[in-house]
Amino acid sequence: MTRDEQQLALIEALVPEGIRAIQPYKVADATGMVKLDAMENPWHWPDAMVEEWMAQLRSVDINRYPSASAPKLKAAIRKQMGVSDTDDILLGNGSDELIQIISMMVSQAGRPIMALEPSFVMYKMVAMWMGVPFVPVTLDQDFQINLVDTLAAIASERPSVIFIAQPNNPTGNLFDLASIKSIAAASEGLVILDEAYTAFSDSDLLPMLAEFPNVLVMRTLSKVGLAGLRLGMLIGSKAWIAELDKLRLPYNINVLTQLSTEFAIKHFHVFEAQTQTIRENRTRLFDALSAMQGLRVWPSAANFLLVKTERVPAKTVFERLRSHGILVKILDGAHPLLKDCLRINVSSIEENDMLLKAMAHSLIE
Fold this sequence. Notes:
With 365 residues, this protein is an alpha/beta fold. Helices cover 43% and strands 16% of the residues.
């Protein structure tokens, strides 16, 4: 048996079939492209702010481990987001790690993980990694919660965790608050409210923590301008956070991320102004795309728009945009409700105009 054959035999013996069947999460190469596929803030920090930041980084003891619990950073987040003193915060290397920690905690409960779909793909992927059954509940044709079906699925499946993104990714819409509360009230397990895009909406689900003992709120600073720092946060009762913290790897938030995020929060007015500009640009981009023949555009409370190509296949439009140097997210094939759909990041006026020009050329039949 050759070395390659031996390796394949070992993989088949040691790696579960479910893991071998999973496709890895792919990130498209954006070199030289106008990058509108990952819901990022298009602006760098102001020069004066960068200089002040670099001066602080020079004082970092890079040879030492970071603070294991990051109390200074948590205090800054608590103040900025208005987290109650009765609640606690768990930090993760992005929201992905927090989803993984939650899934690890319930992996031996013998009950499935549930999410509304289409939604953030990592809810399903992490469940598969953990070997936990995943139960999707399909949204209606307007991407709203089908409450009757959802409550029926909760009653029959008794999920250990339900993930709800508000606003939803990749559809961009807000769910009805009464429906979210009905789900929380009906669930015997945890309900995780993922507010990754809440900065671009008027939604705030933190008050639900005081109303429901099974609710936790997940947030991130990636979308407002700190994507490169990879910081996610889970907010909830001290009892829940204490249990989840047992599964957090030591020193999971590195010293550069801790210091840089503390610094950024002190200058949060910069990100709030940029976020407001993105909200204004979203309205302009929505109107311009909606006026194009052959497109359907859904209203959004996030920093992206969901667009359906009605005459030219979405995959064709995607490739034509690429040929013009514009990278968006192709969603066709991810879920039946997303047939011929693209997700487009709202960016600066300049980059939005480049997209609009390229889109006009890409829709020619």
